[in-house]
Amino acid sequence: MAEPVLQVENVSKRFGGLLAVDKASFTADKGRITALIGPNGAGKTTLFSIISGFAKPTEGHIRYRGVDITGQPPHLLARQGIARTFQIVQPFTGLTVRENIAVGSHLYRAGRVEALDAATEIAEVLDLGNMLDQPAASLTVAGRKRLELARALAIEPRLLLLDEVLAGLNPSEVRDMLPVIRAIANRGVTIVMIEHIMQAVMSLAEQVFVLSEGRIIAQGAPQAIAADPRVIEAYLGRGAAERMSAGAVHG
Amino acid sequence: MLSSVILVPAVLNGLMTGAVYALVALGLTLIYGVLHIINFAHGALLTAAMFAVFFTYKLLGVDPYVAAVGLTPLFFVIGYALQRYVIGPAAHGDDRNILLVTLGLAVVIENALLYAFRADTRTINLPYAFDVIEFHNAFLAKPRVIACAAVIGVALVLGILMRFTSTGKAIRAVAKEKLGAELAGIDVAHIYAVTFGIGTACLAIAACLLMPTYYVNPHAGNAFVLVAFTVVVLGGMGSVTGALLGGLFVGVVESLCGLYLGESLGQIGIFVMFILVLLLRPNGLFGERA
Amino acid sequence: MKGISTILVVTTLLALVPIVTTSNVVLNFLVTTLLIALVGQGWNLLGGYGGQYSFGHAAFFGTGAYATAILQLRFGVNAWVAFGFAIAAGALVGAIIGALSFRSGLKGSYFALVTLAFAEVLRIIASVAPVTGAGVGLLVKLDLRPEAFQFQSRLPFYIIAVALVAIAMIVVRLIEDSRFGAYLVAVRENEDAAKALGVNVVRTKLIAMTVSAAITASGGAFYAQYFLFVDSGIAYGPWISIEALLAPIIGGVGTVFGPLLGALVVKTLGELAKHVTGDAPGLDLVIYGSVLVLVVAFAPRGIAGLVASVRNLFQKARETAAGERSRG
């Protein structure tokens, strides 16, 4: 029986006159990969900010491992096992790759040497081993994405929020990342990923939630979602689903 | 306890002082609103302008109000050049560096004045400096009434400039959305420099308005500018209305505090207000939300 | 630890300078240089490592100076004990200003502004309050005995100054290599990313500010013992706030030796200015301000940064040469 590690309950977020998130609810089960998809501006990153403590919801609650964590600040959530990557990568540009990751490793290790060693290990797993002493600023986009992931893993999270971690990668880089993400989930980490790259969603996610204009409009297994007319319309516009099926009929 | 005979003039005097504060604050808030930098050199530039007014009078015999015609464009150019050729390039766009560069400029200007003219306090004595206008039992010094009127004039002119000229529109565009403005073909470095120049020109006008009734020494500008900072954080960084209303407000408060508490404690009052506003509501009453 | 041995070597060499020369002029120059290095070391912890630029470090310098003077003059406290209390007083002021500023989320220019304002408020209060001697200032009673932290010759002062700077550098080095140090530079680089990794940003800044203030206050207290006179302009004036940040920026922000290197440059420039123009006030600060702008424009990582760049150039040259040799 899958237990929900994350329960987002009727969360709304209003910015002045704009309702960015509208009574969104979803759950993520332990050790599973849950995808949060939807057109741009749907409110996905806002939801992540709320879950990770960077923003407070106007309404609703977030439950993590059964406990209400709504409104707690990010650093406390990190210490409870919630990690996130940022949509626009945020490396510590003045530090080396190893030092970047070590900041995360220090959460459970007070000693500098231990933290640096742990950072080295994680870097090796994510194929950053030969760049450990380079400044983070010198990494390519793909490298920075992997660094972002490595840092998040360094705090040994139970819940990992990946915000478009594959964006900006070329197809072979994407292909290389998929098994890495799968391996993380296999170790028992619950993953929620915002993603636009459907190939990744299809191959990784066990459960998909679709967010459009702040509302969850569909949920289910990836294949079902892909065929859902509401989802198609959210991405391609009203009537698109009909046009597509009409086109299919006439060949 | 205080009759209107004492209160009314105090308030009116406060308003007139406040008008000059508002003008100084206007330059500061404009620079912040467009360049998003806090110009630590503002005080030193005001002092420089005040020295310029002083020497224009002493050496050329030109009345400060007349001198404004020449000094305003001069200081516009100085401000333009400082931003375009010193601050902008030196800072490489890094916020921390901009802080340091404007601080460095402030130190250089203020101490260059100290070195050149020494610490003596100087005043100019105008024949009409002590003329008063009578208004409802209050005797208002003529220069200060002129100052108040002039500030209103400047505010109106700036308002027209901002709204109806293409430069003004470009400035507003850059303030709102720099990248978009750049993409639309606006020369951002030039606009930054123009804005800085306007801010400095405001200081030149303020100096001309101040000198008839005030004094100048190398530290004089700082006293004003710290008040101006208070006005700007109170009224909101980047808000022109805030600078104007805030200036008047602070002027009146200072005048009333001076009545009750005396000179030096009045100064502390302003600083304390400044710190409190920074801590509690750094965007001020009218400013943009962070 | 490797850094510490370098520190000990350098400071021992410095301590041996009096063997080479007993000139009072040189010793005085070095003492004031070390004083600025000490104050700069304090600023550097918060500014260079933590990325929070304070424009009002005079607040801590002056508190240290006044605290030791007042404790001795009004309460007859022993000078050495007063020295300790002065450091604590400075740390307390740092903690208060830090708590107020960081809890309100002030950063960047706003933080610089508020520290400037706090220092000015203290200066004004000190210039009118009787306890600080108001406009006249305080004269620490002349008592040339070691128990009173005063000495007949400059030499013991010099050795103590070297020791204080050494201690400050060792403290910074230890922080550099600790979890706190890693968190501090993370806060400097990117606060949000740091938060997401479990760093309590406000607490980190606050601790840095407190230690920074303590180090700077020790400089202030030493000043009071060395010059035996404090007034509001000396204690809380802009000159010390500027020298506190100028030394690390010239020498290299965020490095252990930056403040010392920078202090040497600052003081040398000051002496040159005095030789060229006599005692006309203002010129030294004009030079300091210009140097600040120039350093920011052309060498933002200071002397230490230039050294590192040169070393990188040599390393790249060696690598290219090795590459060519293996190919050829």
Descriptive account of the structure:
The complex is a heterotrimer of chains A (251), B (290) and C (328). In chain A, helix 3 (97-105) crosses helix 4 (112-125), helix 3 (97-105) runs parallel beside helix 5 (141-154) and helix 4 crosses helix 5. With 251 residues, chain A is α/β, with parallel strands linked by helices. Chain A has a six-stranded mixed sheet, with helices on both faces. Chain A has ten helices and ten strands. Chain A has helices spanning 44-51, 74-79, 97-105, 112-125, 141-154, 171-186, 198-204, 222-227, 229-236, 240-250; strands at residues 4-15, 18-29, 33-37, 59-64, 67-68, 82-84, 159-163, 190-194, 207-212, 215-220. Chain A folds into two domains: 4-90 and 155-250, 3-Layer(aba) Sandwich (Rossmann fold), CATH 3.40.50; 92-138, no CATH class. In chain B, helix 1 runs antiparallel to helix 10 (240-261) and helix 3 (64-91) packs across helix 4 (95-117). Chain B contains eleven helices and two strands, in the order ααααββααααααα. The model of chain B has no long low-confidence stretch (mean pLDDT 84). In chain B, strand 1 and strand 2 (138-141) form a beta hairpin. Chain B is mainly alpha-helical and 290 residues long. Chain B has a single domain (4-280), classed as ABC transporter involved in vitamin B12 uptake, BtuC. Chain C is an all-alpha fold and 328 residues long. In chain C, 78% of the residues lie in helices and 1% in strands. Chain C has 14 helices and two strands; from the N terminus they run αααααβααααβααααα. Chain C has helices spanning 2-20, 24-49, 58-75, 79-103, 108-128, 154-176, 179-189, 191-196, 201-227, 232-236, 238-251, 258-277, 283-298, 302-327, and strands at 138-139, 229-230. In chain C, helix 7 crosses helix 9. The longest helix of chain C is centred in the middle third of the chain and has 27 residues, at 201-227. Chain C is globular. At the B-C interface, helix 3, helix 4, helix 9 and helix 11 of B face helix 5, helix 11 and helix 13 of C.
Note the total helix count of chain A.
10
Strand order of the biggest β-sheet of chain B: 1-2
- Provide the gyration radius of chain A in Å: 19 Å
Largest interface: B-C, 47 and 43 residues
Helix count from the secondary structure assignment of chain B: 11
Largest sheet of chain B: 2 strands, antiparallel
Q: Which strands sit side by side, in order, in the main sheet of chain A?
A: 6-7-8-3-9-10
Please state the overall shape of chain A, judged from the principal axes of the Cα atoms: globular
Instruction: Please identify, by name, the CATH architecture of the largest domain in chain A.
Output: 3-Layer(aba) Sandwich
Number of strands of chain B: 2
